[in-house]
Amino acid sequence: MAKTEIRVSGLGGQGVILCATIIGKAAALFDGRHATMIQSFGPEARGSACSAQVTIDDQPVTYPYVTRPDVLVTMSPDAYDQFAGSLKPGGILLYESDLVTPGAKLPEGIQLYGITATRYAEELGRKLVLNIVMVGFFAGATGLISREAVEKAVLDSVPRGTEDLNMQAMARGYEQGVEARKGKGSGILQEGATR
Amino acid sequence: MKSQGLPCQHTLRDGMAVTIRLQETTDAKALLDFYCALPEEDRQYLDDDVATPEWIRRFIQRTDFKTRYPIVAEAAGRIIGHAWLIRTQQGWMSHVGQLRFAVARDQQRKGLGLALVREILHIAENIGLDIMTARVLEDQVGVLCICEKLGFKREAVLQGYARDVQGHRRNLVILGNDISRIWDAMEMLVADMPPTRE
């Protein structure tokens, strides 16, 4: 599989970095590929812009910075405004559809998949797991990392005692991602798992 | 009592669909059938002689959803699992609940115990408990595995505190789960703070 550049973005406190860490861990530790992750934060921890860059490749990654991502995961309107324009034409946008309304700034031929991740997390009883819903959605919608690898990476990353709910969150996101991917039409402005 | 998320559907590892719901007064007969069908070696893990109509009657009478919160797992009109939470409303341990559960022998190792304990933990959170405890024999490996998967830790091992049906003394493990703290670590993880601020 070719080198894939991913940017995960949102607000501090949404678990952006953990989301990116799990994606990278799934690829590198459990899918046998190579991955790098770089994180950046705003001046404040909670509520400020936050993003992480993940690169996945079959070869060792020699340059870890992402300038034109193939996949953009975005969980806040500010992050969308900041990064939507940088997506590669024909790339994939995964977004939190209760918070983000895609439209302007998108390059040509972008595939859009939305999920109400926060609502799913709240239904499961913990808003905190919205990022894990997003991890599952990423895996299901892009097919870049296997479900088995994501499961192992989630279990390897979350605190003891929270595994069960996190796995439910991952599964919910994954299933929605697979459904969204199945519904892929021309690949342009495709609405995924919004409800 | 209304409980968030109950009744709920659950699919066991073999594909069997199960409904988990709060216990009702009309469950007496089905509960008696459930406990009578449990082999003696499984019943020995429970505190009382559960396979008697008298125990079932008293248990249902005492169910007030204030100090005792029982749930059942039902499939094809049959109870295949029973779990409950006991708490005191006053005193120095009013923030602590105790867990009990039993699963039909033919439905064990399919994820039903895990689902029942998970629902009991949800109830514990909903009613504002901080800590859940469970007492398990040291060789109840499956039960220990379920509890530890859901955040219980071994707080103590009481040597020889339990006696089995053959009269052998066995070790009793006291498990504790500080459900008020369990998500603190997750909150730290999703705080998106630079490593220098941690």
Explain briefly what this protein structure is.
The complex is a heterodimer of chains A (195) and B (198). Chain A has 195 residues and is an alpha/beta fold.
Distance between the termini of chain B: 42 Å
List the total number of helices of chain B.
Answer: 6
N-to-C SSE string of chain B, H for helix and E for strand = EEHHHEEEHEHEEH
Helix content of chain B: 25-40%
What percentage of amino acids of chain B are in beta strands?
A: 25-35%
Q: Identify the strand order in the major beta sheet of chain A.
A: 2-3-1-4-5-6
Could you describe the largest sheet of chain B, including whether it forms a barrel? 8 strands, mixed
Q: What does the radius of gyration of chain B come to?
A: 18 Å
What spatial form of chain B do the alpha-carbon principal axes imply? Answer: globular
Structural class per helix/strand content of chain B? Answer: alpha+beta
* Tally of contiguous helical segments of chain A: 6
Give the integer mean of the pLDDT values of chain B.
Answer: 91
Strand portion of chain A, in percent? Answer: 15-25%
Strand order of the largest sheet of chain B: 1-2-3-4-5-6-8-7
What would your notes on this structure say?
The complex is a heterodimer of chains A (about 200) and B (about 200). With about 200 residues, chain A is an alpha/beta fold. Chain A has helices at about 15-30, 75-85, 115-125, 130-140, 145-155, 165-180; strands at about 5-10, 35-40, 50-55, 70-75, 90-95, 110-115. Helix content of chain A is about 40%, strand content about 20%. The longest helix of chain A has 20 residues, at about 165-180. Chain A is globular. Chain B is of the alpha+beta class and about 200 residues long. Chain B contains 6 helices and 8 strands. Chains A and B meet through helix 1 and helix 6 of A and helix 4 and helix 6 of B.
Map the helices and strands.
The complex is a heterodimer of chains A (195) and B (198).
Chain A: E1 4-11, H1 16-30, E2 34-41, E3 49-57, E4 71-74, H2 77-83, E5 92-96, E6 111-115, H3 117-124, H4 130-142, H5 147-157, H6 163-182
Parallel strand pairs in A: 1-4, 4-5, 5-6
Antiparallel strand pairs in A: 1-3, 2-3
Helix pairs in contact in A: 1-4, 1-5, 3-4, 3-6, 4-6, 5-6
Chain B: E1 8-11, E2 17-22, H1 28-37, H2 40-43, H3 53-62, E3 68-75, E4 78-87, E5 96-103, H4 112-126, E6 131-137, H5 141-149, E7 153-163, E8 169-178, H6 184-189
Parallel strand pairs in B: 5-6
Antiparallel strand pairs in B: 1-2, 2-3, 3-4, 4-5, 6-8, 7-8
Helix pairs in contact in B: 1-3
